[in-house]
Amino acid sequence: MLRTHTCGELDKTHVGDTVTLCGWVDSYRDHGGGLFVDLRDRYGLVQVAFNPPDTSPVEIEASKQLRAEYVIKVTGRVAERPPGKANPNLTTGDIEVRATQLELLNKSKTPPVSPSAAKQDLPGEDLRLEHRYLDLRRPEMQRVLMLRDRIVKGMRDYFAEHDFIDVETPCLGRSTPEGARDYLVPSRVHPGNFYALPQSPQLYKQILMIAGYDRYVQVARCFRDEDLRADRQPEFTQLDLEMSFVDADDVIGEIDGLCQKLAKEELGLDLQLPLPRMTYDEAMRRFGHDAPDLRFGLEIIDCTDLAPKSDFGVFKNVVAGGGFVRAINVKKGTEQYSRRGIDGLTEFVQGLGAKGLAWFRCEEDGKLGSTIAKFFSDEVLAEFAERLGAEAGDLILFSAADWDMTCKVLHALRTKVGREMKLYDPQAMHFSWVVEFPMFAQDEETGHWAAMHHPFTAPLDEHVPLLETDPGKCRAKAYDLVINGSEAGGGTIRIHDAAVQSQVFSLLGIDAATADDRFGFLLHALQYGAPPHGGIALGIDRWVMLFGRLDSIRDCIAFPKTQKATDLMTEAPGEVDARQLKELSLKINV
RNA sequence: GGCGCCGUAGCUCAAUUGGUUAGAGUACUGGACUGUCGAUCCAGUGGUUGCGGGUUCGAGUCCCGUCGGCGUCGCCA
Q1: Mind listing the pLDDT tens digit for each residue in A125-165?
Q2: Is residue A67 in a domain?
Q3: Nearest nt (C1') from A353 Cα
Q4: Coil, helix or strand for A221?
Q5: Complex confidence, ipTM
Q6: What would the pLDDT profile of A414-424 be if each residue is shown by its tens digit?
Q7: Are residues A358 and A259 in the same domain?
Q8: Which nucleotide minimizes the distance between its C1' and the CA of A114?
Q9: Which residues in range 400-439 of chain A are in contact with strand B, contact meaning CB within 7 A of any of its atoms?
């Protein structure tokens, strides 16, 4: 080792010791007769003093060449700082290292991204990504990567203690047409054929259950070639697990325990178990979303039955057409949202596809007022006010449309208003489950049914008859873990009954030949003694994002990709040699 | 693919209604300084205003296109 100690570990107990440190020059303060260097490594920051008489004139002269991010090795004696010179902002602020020897290990060009930059001086994200090795030197990035390390380790330890075994599954698999777009890898040995990178280890983990490994877990990299978002990357990491001889409650209970453990360890939070659960239908009714943010209320209130009592054409027509009129009551919202502010909200919902935004203000006398109030009689206005619990200063925002659009609009409004009116503590963490998702969603144009989760998801036992009579009402043994309005994990119990499986396939329009072609290996395996099984996958990147209170998933990943799925540091993806293409029997057509 | 925001010195930003030679802080270079910790003080270097076109007497500013970054809708079983 070139060093005897790390920069962060020194304190008063080391006073008098001679130490050798290695690290990067975080900053330097040249004082003429001597100078001070803040030396940084992964463990912290310590002040190194190059002052007479401890430091020789030769070493002081050499120290004047130091610049930001130079890598040095320093030997010196740990000393208590002179009275009144301690720095309370530094954990090592009581002491300093009085240098006797300086060795320059490496120079640095002037860094375009400064690891010691204050938050408001943080360079643009494109620069940070291009020079990620500098960005990752920032204490904040180190905090996040270390948090990530502890979360993953905490998960691994937890499942190891619960008798799960870690099994690796292939990255080179077979493309299945369902779900997200695949990343493809061409095969050299089989010209014209392709592997697909896994969207998740779904099929393999089911095979492992059939193979008798009744508790499987893996930290698995997953790939989906879809457009990116602030919380979505093309490759991401899941804590994937599967269990045999279980029902939904068992899987949920297992994850409940994990949440409790990690919330305690990382957030100091005591979670009451079981975590709250809500059905999908209730979530959509009360919050308009399958992953509601339960840190605050602002629930949706249905006014569909009242709407036709008005003479307001929009309401009447929507209801007559089978649509819904629903609203949120923004308590004291008129202070935050003036007429101009409401115009802004109108533009906001129009951007989501809404035709407009109907609204009421509750006046001082408790009556509802609005540009549309003239279409409502006093009696009907009073009915609305009562239904909505309107009090002076409240702002009522409506969505009148089909069910899906009212959900989309009111969820977006609720999220926006909740954030803008600070209806919750940004430090708060809320864990809950949404359960019993629909089995199928119907394509509006074709009328075809599509699996909401995947085609192996089991329906609720009592809903099996609905597969024949009313698939849209059929609910699944599916469950999503929701943290602060973010989907932090999701899973299902799988079908292990061949008859139910073929029923689902036929509903999805997958005939026997197609099913055999796509996932024949799984269907075959299911015929050799498949245990009832189910599992879940947790989005590790999102867990880190939520536990670390970060706004972007890119800040939780050491080397993330941009919105266009490029790596600004390596400049991936890139072109390849003609020779490589020839070996793969590929021709580029652009 | 649609919509929106952004792009000015190495970095973070400013630049009035379209108007003189595009400024500031920081970094960098040189100098001064024996206790600083965002050190301080003096001086200096540093610009294809992302790129291309257009409008105009005149464009960092307005228009069109394009590239890049971000957000969002579609998409993400």
Answers
A1: 999 999 999 999 999 999 999 999 999 999 999 999 999 99
A2: yes
A3: B73
A4: strand
A5: 0.93
A6: 999 999 999 99
A7: no
A8: B11
A9: 408, 412
